[in-house]
Specification:
alpha+beta, 25 helices
């Protein structure tokens, strides 16, 4: 029986090649999109699960309110890990990470700047699953100046993974010994470093500083331990260890500290939640967001649903063509159940054919998708045997979902009526098909609006005034090798034609996260008059080079000897202090919290607020201090021949720092990199939205063709009576346009709600203007008109003699 069903199904598919092609192509695109998104979602959900202890590993995060600021931190105080292990039996082990910048390594005669460097405790291998190819996990990171490197890195520097015992010259000064080689870290990890330096190399790692949060700290809990029960005890831990430090610095106890509205809390974040649920200050790397998983999953669901709706629409629209077949089968004794099975078999067969095409489309689209998503996703049915059952289940569900209504609808026809040709059919009488078209275009309009809003927000980020001019600023990274020649380099570089100005600093708005420091407005270090802010050492050319403006006061100047104790604060800081006339006011900066080293600084200027954190956050308080720091050199250029100018700057640098790498970027590129995830996800969402609209158009094209076919005789009569091509085209198109209008009425409020919710994540965001909805509605109408116009014009141009010859 099944063989007969398949044979009949193939015959019907071949008989209606056009409609079959629309169904198969639509389903194939839908299945391919679903498969791509499913692979993306599986990849996102698999982060950090390669660790054998993944379900017991937690990061110690912070929630701090102080100095008018609220911080959600991915870092903890220096001694947090060791104290948790010492004081709490639930803690099996801990490890700390500290990102302290890159290393300059010697490879032969070449200097190589490596940035994927992290400092780690010797307990690294007790916490994370990082298999060693060479070396002892117990001793690999115990001694200072020890390095554990990945296999790829070992081959890069030594042409072998057996590199233990070798040395690398670091910063042209120290020899670091290779003590371990690990397998390359999986891509599905929230950290991907090539170099692990022993934590004992850092002097600050041995401090007992409870008021600075600098270390990403992870703990492994013992089997059966409840993280919530451990978290409950953290308040007592803060009182015990942070309390004395607060007392030492501000001469108040924790009760008074909390009474003023300040607090410090610690909590545990599961390792497997970091990638999708953590966007805190001090992350090791930018994470993704569960929002994208939800958004893309919803898009996949709706795309597949639109493809299924196409199938249902076209199948029920063509019901009159299959009616006589159903009538004859029923007269010959076929049961309703047998007819349902036949039509469902036909539907599942179409899904199977679509799956084959979808797999081919997925293989074709996967490289482009990986490039857009910055992923390394692979589709290998042999390597992932669990994927095939999922695909087969997807085909079965799709076939049943798409074919269920047509199957039951067609099998319900009464044989006498259909054989006599009394079955009522037509576009206008099918409220269900109209409803399904409205559903399709409602989703399409929502996706069009979402696409426009996403594009507007991405463009807003690119064009929003950040408070500094990032265009045509060349950034030289790590100019520390210039040493005592740094000042001379800056003086010489501004003499090059095409260079307007230059500044040397370790602090640029595009550099990412840095620690905050308390700056007090009272010499007694009264916490009520403290503002927690970032403090940057800059030179007197910083503001001019980056195009920053002062609202009041003056810039730093070497002519004023007292400027060594001067400070410039931003508008956000001035507002938090409550200053109406800040110029000349004294501020008290706690440079070294441990030794209570306080600097008295006088305010000489207020700089306009500029963004130095994500647009998801408001501008925070900031202080600029006059100081020497050659960490980076930012050079403002004005030249039409940028390659030639860069070559001149490189030549000058090579003369003053021979053999040192000349690493540079442009500040606008660095700025864009801060929002690379949003840009990637936005482009992917726009692409998938376009595919959804394409599938909806395929269905509309098929329905228009069928509507024109059903009204062939009516069109012939109207033409005989004098109707023009435009009259007939309008007549056939207006029914579809009415449905688009209804779709717009449904889609507009839903789209506004979805996109308004999405934009709330950004402190600085675009507006959802009224014209967005008008544009989306007009676009949907034009898409509908262009989609049906081919069929309607074709029908209108048909010779009426052909359509009426049998009447």
């Amino acid at each position: 029986m099944l063989r007969n069903y398949i044979k009949i199904a193939l015959r019907n598919l071949w008989k209606s090649k056009g409609f079959s092609a629309i169904n198969i192509i639509g389903l194939a695109i839908g299945l391919a999109t679903c498969l791509l998104i499913m692979l993306f979602v599986i990849d996102e959900l698999s982060y950090d699960r390669y660790n054998k202890k993944a379900d017991r590993i937690y990061r110690v995060d912070g929630d701090i309110k102080f100095g008018g600021n609220h911080f959600i931190l991915a870092v903890a105080p220096d001694p947090m890990g060791s104290t948790l292990k010492k004081d709490y039996p639930q803690v099996e082990q801990y490890v700390r990470f500290r990102d302290n910048g890159g290393l300059l390594l010697k490879k032969g005669n070449e200097n190589v700047q490596e940035d994927k460097v992290i400092y780690a405790d010797s307990t690294l291998f007790d916490v994370f699953t990082l298999p060693l190819l060479d070396g002892d996990p117990q001793t690999a990171l115990q001694t200072p100046n020890s390095l554990v490197i990945t296999a790829t890195t070992a081959r890069k520097y030594f042409n072998t993974t057996q590199a233990v015992g070798r040395t690398l010259l670091v910063n042209n000064r120290d020899n670091y010994k290779i003590t371990g080689v690990i397998k390359d870290i999986p891509a599905q990890s929230h950290f991907t470093y090539d170099f692990f330096v022993s934590m004992s190399t850092l002097e600050e790692s041995r401090r007992n500083n409870w008021v600075s949060n600098n270390f990403n700290t992870y703990v492994v809990l013992k089997e059966g331990s409840d993280p919530k029960k451990l978290e409950v005890q953290f308040d007592a831990l803060i009182d015990k260890y942070v309390g004395p430090a607060v007392k030492q610095i501000m001469s108040i106890d924790m009760a008074e500290f909390k009474k003023s509205g300040n607090y410090e809390k610690q909590y545990l974040t599961p390792l497997t939640s970091i990638h999708l649920y953590s966007d805190k200050t001090g992350e090791l790397a930018p994470n993704s967001s569960i929002q994208y998983v939800y958004i893309f999953s919803a898009i996949a669901f709706f795309i597949l649903l639109i493809a299924c709706v196409n199938f249902m629409n076209l199948s029920t629209a063509r019901s009159a063509n299959r009616a006589r077949e159903v009538g004859v089968r029923k007269v010959l004794g076929s049961l309703k159940a047998n007819l349902v099975k036949q039509f469902l078999t036909e539907s599942i067969l179409i899904s199977c054919i679509a799956l084959v095409l979808a797999l081919a489309l997925t293989f074709i689209m996967l490289p482009t998708f990986n490039h857009l998503a910055a992923k390394e996703i692979k589709l290998n049915l042999l390597a992932t045997p669990w994927l095939l059952p999922i695909l087969l289940a997807m085909v079965l569900v799709t076939g049943l979902l798409a074919g269920s209504y047509p199957a039951f609808y067609l099998s319900s026809f009464k044989p006498i009526q259909v054989i006599k040709g009394k079955l009522a059919a037509g576009f206008k009488t099918s409220w269900l098909r109209s409803g399904l078209v409205v559903f399709q275009f409602s989703i399409s309009i929502i996706l069009i609006i979402a696409t426009i809003v996403i594009y507007k927000q991405l463009n807003f980020i690119q064009s929003h005034k950040t408070g500094f001019n990032r265009e045509q600023v060349l950034v030289l990274h790590s100019t520390l090798p210039l040493g005592s020649k740094a000042k001379t380099f800056r003086e010489e570089v501004v003499k090059i034609s095409g260079v307007e100005n230059a500044t040397m600093t370790g602090y640029l708005p595009t550099n990412g996260w840095r620690n905050d420091n308390p700056v007090f407005a009272d010499p007694t270090l009264d916490q009520k008059k403290a503002v927690s802010m970032q403090t940057w050492d800059v030179d007197d050319q910083y503001l001019a080079t980056l195009g920053m403006e002062l609202t009041t006061g003056r810039n730093f100047s070497r002519e004023f000897l007292t400027d060594s104790s001067a400070i410039i604060i931003n508008e956000a800081a001035a507002k938090m202090y409550g200053f109406t006339d800040p110029i000349g006011k004294n501020l008290y900066y706690l440079r070294d919290i441990g030794n209570k080293n306080v600097s008295v600084l006088h305010v000489i200027g207020i700089v306009k607020d500029f963004n130095f954190t994500s647009f998801r956050q408001q501008v925070r308080p900031l202080a600029l201090l006059l100081g020497e720091n050659a960490g980076n050199t930012a050079i403002r250029i004005n030249s039409t021949n940028i390659p030639h100018l860069v070559a001149q700057i490189e030549n000058l640098y090579n003369k003053m720092a021979p053999g040192e790498p000349f690493n540079y970027t442009f500040m606008d590129e660095d700025f864009n990199n801060l929002y690379r995830t949003e840009q990637r996800m936005g482009i992917i969402a726009i692409s998938f939205s376009a595919l959804a609209i394409l599938i909806a158009c395929l269905g509309l094209f098929g329905l228009a063709a069928y509507a024109a076919e059903q009204r062939t005789k009516e069109i012939g009569i109207r033409k005989v009576l004098g109707a023009t091509v435009s009259n007939i085209t309008t007549m056939l198109s207006k029914d579809f346009l009415k449905l688009v209008i209804v779709s717009a009425v449904i889609a507009f409020p839903l789209a506004w709600w979805f996109m308004h919710s999405w934009l709330q994540d950004f402190a600085y965001r675009t507006t959802i203007s009224w014209w967005v909805f008008i544009m989306a509605g007009v676009a949907a109408a034009l898409i509908a008109v262009f989609t049906v116009s081919f069929q309607t014009i074709r029908a209108a141009l048909m010779n009426p003699v052909k359509s009426l010859r049998n009447e």
